[in-house]
Amino acid sequence: MIIDLKNIHLGNLISQRVAEKKIDSPRICKFIKCTESEWKSMQTQKSLDTEIVLRLSILLEYDFFRIYSQHLILYAPQANTHYNNNSNKKSSLPNFRKNIYTKEVVDFILEQIESGNKTKAQIMSEYRIPKTTIYKWMNKYRQLKENNDEK
């Protein structure tokens, strides 16, 4: 399954995970401390309170926050682009490396190319992924696929 990282609907994703894990509503309501009607409402919402998402991530054994991280990797401006000149100021918040591509992101990008939905040039332009990175992924995952096919 490929998640639409551009238009994340958290309620749908949570509902999908609940169905996969076969967890009943009373258990979920007890864990996140809500009523049955509140729980039904949450499943229709595009976004939820982070405390609820954290508790559901624990219960459902799935990191829903990572979906947003993947969105940032693909759609947020490059860290070295200076949109504001406060870049010299240090922050008290942790500093994370931006360009860390997970297997899911790599699979998503390669699927876009293989299916013909996007060209390599479109991927480079839209997601700001360097040409060399795309070609490295293509070679690496082609070799992995060939090795798996041989087994």
TrEMBL record:
Annotated HTH psq-type domain residues: 111-145
Pfam families: CENP-B_N
InterPro entries for the chain: Homeodomain-like_sf, HTH_Psq
SUPFAM superfamilies referenced in this protein's UniProt entry, alphabetically: Homeodomain-like (SSF46689)
Protein name (record): HTH psq-type domain-containing protein
Source organism per UniProt: Chryseobacterium ginsengisoli
Lineage of the organism: Bacteria, Pseudomonadati, Bacteroidota, Flavobacteriia, Flavobacteriales
